[in-house]
Amino acid sequence: MIWENIKLAMKSMASSKMRTSLSLLGIIIGVASVIAILTLGQSATKSITDAIVEGGLEMVTIYPIRSEKSSKEFTEDFGDRLMANVDDIRTVLPVNSSTAVVRVGQKSASGSVNGVLSSYADILDFEAVEGKFFSLSDNMAARQVVALGSAIAEELFPDGDAVGQFVSIFRNQAKSYQVVAVMKEKDPSFNIQYNNGLYIPYNTYSQRFIRPTIVGSYVVRVKEGADSLKVSDNISDYLDSTIGSDSYTLFSPATLADMAEQITGTFSTFLAAIAAISLLVGGIGIMNIMLVSVAERTREIGVRKAMGASPWTIMGQFITEAIVLTITGGLIGIGLGTLLSYAVANVVGWSLYISYSSFIFAAGFSTLVGVFFGWYPAMKASKLDPIEALNYE
Amino acid sequence: MSSEVITLHDVRRYFLMGEFIVKALDGVSLTINRGEYTAITGPSGSGKSTMMNLIGCLDTPTDGLISIDGEETLGMSEAELAFIRNQKVGFVFQQFNLLGRINALENVMTPLLYGGIGVKERRERAKEALDKVGLSDRMRHRPNELSGGQKQRVAIARALVNDPSIILADEPTGALDTTTGNQIMELFEQLNSEGRTVVVVTHDLDIAMRAHRQIKVLDGKLES
Question: What is the pLDDT of residue B138?
Fold first, then answer.
C-alpha cells in the first residue's frame, strides 16, 4: 500500500510539474542553506582547529609572568615539582628565548634565540637534517654552539654547508657560535615558529647570553595517549593553587582547539537554526499545494471512498504525497547545499568537511515538515463526505 | 446462505435544509433477493438517489435498519462501511468516474488494492474482469483514450472485480447514446444471467422495463 501511495504521489507530482517545482522551491532553498551552513561551519572549524593542532596537541606551554613570588617558584626545578603533582606528564622543558640579530659575513637575519636542554629536539620530534643537535656535555660546559632553524639557515647559508661554520649573535655585544646542526623544517605551532629559531644550550644562554631572572617558558609534553585537555586543566589547577592565577599564562593547542570548536559550533548551529526557519516557510508552501491538490481531486477522493478506501487509507495517500514532495525537495536541497559548500570552500581555501549527520538531519527534518504540513490537508481529504465528493464538479 | 441480499426496514433519511427538514426517504422497507435484476425508478427529487446511497453504504439512515448480504450496518464506523463497500458493493456511475491518471487496468485493480490483495493477484483478477467486459485490448489505455462505452465497460469491470454481492448502477446509460447504452444494458443482463444481483437506478422507463422487477419511489416512499 505504501509503495502504491508513493507511485500515486509521483504521478500526481509529474502531472503538474511547474506547480510541483515551485512549491518545492521553499524546501529546496531551506534544506540547501541548512546543509551549506552546517557543512561550511564544520569545514571552517576543521580548518581553524587543524591550524591550531598542527604544532601538536600533546604540548602545553606555560609562560610565567614575572613577580616577586613567581620568581621564586618558576625556577629550573619547577618541572620536577610539576611532574610530581600532575599526572600524565612525560617531560617539562624549561626554555629561555629572546630575539636577536645573527650575522655571517655580510648576511644577517633576525630570529628568536632559544636556550634549551639537549633533550629538547628529541622530545619535540624536531630532527636535524645536517649535523647533530648539541649534546648534554655541550650544555654542561656551556659551549657556544648553535642549531639553526631551517629558515634561518636558508638565509645565512643559502649554499648549504652551515655545519662547522661560525655565526655571530648580537645581544649588546657580538658573540661567536659554532653551528652544530641545521634543523628540519617543522610546521609552526600557534605559539612557536620553529624554523625562525636558533637553539643554543640552556646553560650557555643563561651564563653567556642573557642572565634571566625567571625561566621564560616551560614546554610540557603530555604522555602518549593521555588527554591533553585534562592535563592542561590539571596544570592550571595546580598553578592556581600554588602560585596564583595571575602568575602565568597557559598555552595549550588542545584547549584552544576545543574553544574554537565550541565557538564555531555554536555559531553554525545558530545560523542553521535561522535557515531552518526558511524550511518552515517551505512547509507552508507544501501545505498550500496539498490543499489545492485535495480540492482539485475531491471527485477522485469520492470515487476512491466508494471503492472502499477507508478514511485512514485516504489520509495515508495524501500524507505520503506530502512526504514524497518534501523528501524530493530535501534530496535536491542536500545536493544543492553540498555543491554550494564545495564551491565556497574552494574559493575560501578550506578543506571541505562533509557532515553526513547533517544529511540525515535534513532528510529527517524535511520528512517531518511533510508530515506536519501534510497532516491538515490529508485530514481534510479523509473527512470528505463520499456523496458530496462524488457530485463535486 | 440466506436469499436476501438487501433488506431495508423502515428506513428514513432526513436532511436539514436551513430551518426545514427534508424527508428524502420516509419509511421505506424493501427486500431484494440474490440474483434479482431490479430497477429503482422515480422522478428526480423522489428519493431514489438517497436510496441508492444508503444501499451502497455511502450514507447512513436517520432511522431504520439496513443490512447488506447479512451485515447489519447500524452503528458501523466509517472504516467498517468502507469495508462493506469494498467487499459487497460494486458501483457503476453515470459519469463513469474512472481515475484519470492511471490506465484501465490500474483503475480496475484499485478496489482490490483497498481489499488488501497482493499486486500479482490484483493484476490477474483485473485482467479477467476486463476480459469479461470485452476490453482486454484496451488495458493500457488511460480513460481519456477510451470512448464513453469503453469507459463504462471499464467501470463495470471495476465494479465486478471484487466479486461483490450487489452491482449498483446509477443511471449507467445516462451519458451514452442509445446504441452504446443498449450494449451496456445487455452486459448487465448477461451478468445477471450469471447469477449476479443487479440494481439499476434510473428515471428512464425503457431502461427500467428491461429489469425483472421495478421499484418506484415517489416523495420518499415506495409506490407499488
Answer: 92
> Residues A88, A209: one domain?
yes
Residue A267 lies in a domain: yes
pLDDT at A54 over 70: no
CB atoms within 10 A of CB B89: 26
**A209 lies in a domain?**
yes
Gap between the Cα atoms of A48 and B193, Å rounded: 85
Are residues A16 and A68 located together in one domain of the fold?
A: no
- Chain B nearest-CA distance from A304, in A, is 8
Question: What pTM does this model have?
Answer: 0.72
CB atoms within 10 A of CB A206: 17
Same domain for A65 and A15, yes or no, is no
Q: How far apart are CA A244 and CA A248, in angstroms?
A: 8
Residues of chain A positioned with their CB less than 8 A from the CB of B102: 11
Min Cα–Cα distance to chain B from A314, Å: 10
DSSP letter string, A52-114: HHTT-TTEEEEEE---HHHHHHSSTTHHHHHHHHSSSEEEEEEEEEEEEEEEETTEEEEEEEE
Residues 82-121 of B with CB under 8 A from A: 82-83, 85-87, 91, 93, 97-102, 110-111, 113-116
Half-sphere exposure of A227 (CA within 13 A, CB side): 5
Q: How many domains does chain A have?
A: 2
For residue A232, tell me if it sits in a domain: no
In a shared domain, residues A67 and A205: yes
Q: Are residue A73 and residue A155 in the same domain, yes or no?
A: yes
- Asked if B101 lies within 8 A of A12 by C-beta distance, the reply is yes
> pLDDT tens-digit profile of B9-36?
999 999 998 889 999 999 999 999 999 9
CA–CA separation, B66 and B70 (whole Å): 9
* Cα angle for residues A8, A12, A13 (degrees, 5° grid): 115
Q: Using 50, 70 and 90 to split pLDDT, how confident is the model at A256?
A: confident
Q: What is the domain range of residue A133?
A: 59-225
Do B4 and B47 contact (CB within 8 A), yes or no?
A: no
What secondary structure does DSSP assign to B57-122, as a single string? TSS--SEEEEEETTEE-TT--HHHHHHHHHHHEEEE-TT----TTS-HHHHHHHHHHHTT--HHHH
Q: Tell me how close the Cα of A1 comes to any Cα of chain B, in angstroms.
A: 7
Is residue A231 assigned to a domain? Answer: no
ipTM of the complex: 0.94
